[in-house]
Specification:
three-stranded antiparallel sheet; 3 strands; globular
Length: about 70
């Protein structure tokens, strides 16, 4: 487990810092303010990302309706 600053979390997710703040303010991305600055836990971000992307622990990613993603 590693604590990340907002900038580090944005870089970790490969998104703009404004997008990160927007997700946090909407309550969509887990984070906490510590001393007036946002902090994130890398494991929480990975778990959140998996829940958003449809990745499951048992097998390949799933489509929103539960069907397997077709292989190209």
């Amino acid at each position: 487990m590693k604590f990340l600053t907002a900038l580090e979390a944005a870089e970790f997710l490969k998104i703009k810092i404004d997008t990160l703040y927007s997700l946090v303010e909407k309550g969509q991305l887990p984070g906490a303010k510590v001393g007036g600055q946002w902090r994130f836990i890398d494991d929480d971000i990975v778990t959140w990302f998996k829940s958003q992307s449809g990745v499951n622990e048992e097998g390949p990613p799933l489509l929103r309706n539960g069907e397997d993603i077709p292989k190209s």
